[in-house]
Description:
Blueprint: H1 3-12, H2 27-34, E1 58-63, H3 69-78, E2 82-89, E3 92-97, H4 101-107, E4 113-116, H5 129-141, H6 148-161, E5 166-169, E6 172-175, H7 186-195, H8 199-209, E7 222-225, E8 242-246, E9 257-261, E10 264-268, H9 280-287, E11 299-302, H10 311-316, E12 321-325, H11 329-342, E13 351-354, H12 361-372, E14 380-385, H13 394-405, E15 413-423, H14 424-428, H15 431-443, E16 447-461, E17 464-475
Parallel strand pairs: 6-7, 11-12, 11-14, 12-13, 14-15
Antiparallel strand pairs: 1-3, 1-4, 2-3, 5-6, 7-8, 9-10, 15-17, 16-17
Helix pairs in contact: 1-6, 6-7, 12-13
Bound molecules: S-adenosylmethionine.
Residues 234-236, 304-310, 325-328, 331, 357-358, 386-388, 393 line the site of S-adenosylmethionine.
Amino acid sequence: MTDTVLAHVSRVLAPPDGPAGLSGENLPSRIAAYESDEPAGAAGQWAGQESNRTRMMHVELLISDARDVKRVKNALEARGAFVKPVYAEGPVKVVRTQLDAAGAAALFPGMPVREWSADVERPARRTQDIVAFSLRYFRTHMRDDVDGTVAATVLAALAARIPTKYSVYPPVLLFNNSAERSFTRGEFTRGLETLGVSSTEYYRALLGEFLGASRDRLPMRVVAVNRPIEEADTLRQPHHLDILYRGDSGSDDELWCELRQNGLWQSWNPTRTMFSRGNVKEKARVLDPRAFPDVRANDVVDLYCGIGYFTFSYLARGCRHLFGFELNPWSVAGLWRGHERNGADPEHARTHIYNEDNEASVQRLGQFRQKSMGGELLRIRHINLGLLPSSKQGWPVALSLLREHHDWAACPLATLHVHENVGVAELEDGTFVQGLVEQLAEIEGAWTYAAVHVERIKTFAPGVWHVCVDVDVRSAA
Length: 477
Ligand SMILES: C[S@@+](CC[C@H](N)C(=O)[O-])C[C@H]1O[C@@H](n2cnc3c(N)ncnc32)[C@H](O)[C@@H]1O
């Protein structure tokens, strides 16, 4: 064995009281600590009581030059305003603070900031805990007759392949699948065979470690590996979800995950529908009356409603009617499960979901107005356009809805929330936003458009941000 391999083997074989991070002794509590999408006591806001959700929003600093991180951290620590950990989003280093926007501007003039709250997603999970647990398990469950040197080499190889990033989506423990670290790598499966370790028993044991990990104490029964969604797939379906272990006899069609974020339940079938934890921040923004004013008692259209990511936040804010359009029947089924779990609007008096192309929305809203409103116009205060990589298909649809069905006299302002993946350069030089506004004006020239906010939601790929641009639309008349 080379020195490098030996050094690595001695590191991964460190005894339980060895270096922190490899011991794994405190595994359950550490894992439990990762599983929290919201602070204890965050209440469901479904009934539309929005006042108690208003809270001070802290900001995080977006630092483009890594050399500035230390200085910023020191300054924050001196004021007791630093929040661990510092993390990276593409080229940007993100430092969380206990400061509000004004405090940050005073301390770090000109530095870009964005809001965050404790119920916003934690940074990517990277931990050696899974590795430590797994190595302990392999050592205690491998065949007695495996040669010591072979065992050490194989354990080192396994340690390098075990995925360390995962999501707890009860009942599914979903692992990432990077080029280096994955349970589906040949080295991993061959390594288990060499040691005589049963993968089924190993996954069952791994799940056992997560039993107490779900904050809502939901059962964990499935280990799966996710692969990236294909860019070209409009329905954003997880075609490459591999189920490695199932502790029940249900079929894929009966597998429903549940997760509560910002006090609202969501439900989805992970073999049929994508789920992005990172959108939790945008969902929280929809719940913030300062960011999304006048939702209450007005109407909202969600042109790509999916499983209800944003739909539920609008309903929680007390909108009058929510019209959602979604092509994927599995997402619609998930949306209704989540809707039921959230326990309000049981008669579906406010929630109108159409399992069809949003191109049909102009016609559907017309029918709704005739049937349920005596032909009266709607007050469409917000239109959500939540499709990646681009929601461009929905831009003319959104403007047609305003043209045909919106009462400008009763509601003089309508806001489009345009989700897109945008390159950093186009964002920073303003060309994306300018192009968006110009294209909207080309579609409907009689109105005015003002891009009032650009929310950087998460990095989609290096140098590419998933953003939501809020565009205020006013009729010139
Ligand atoms: C990024 S996902 C939506 C995320 C969503 N907000 C949620 O809760 O899942 C985009 C969704 O748009 C749907 N979709 C794509 N094109 C559509 C169209 N023309 N009309 C209606 N839905 C569409 C896809 O099926 C997918 O579920």
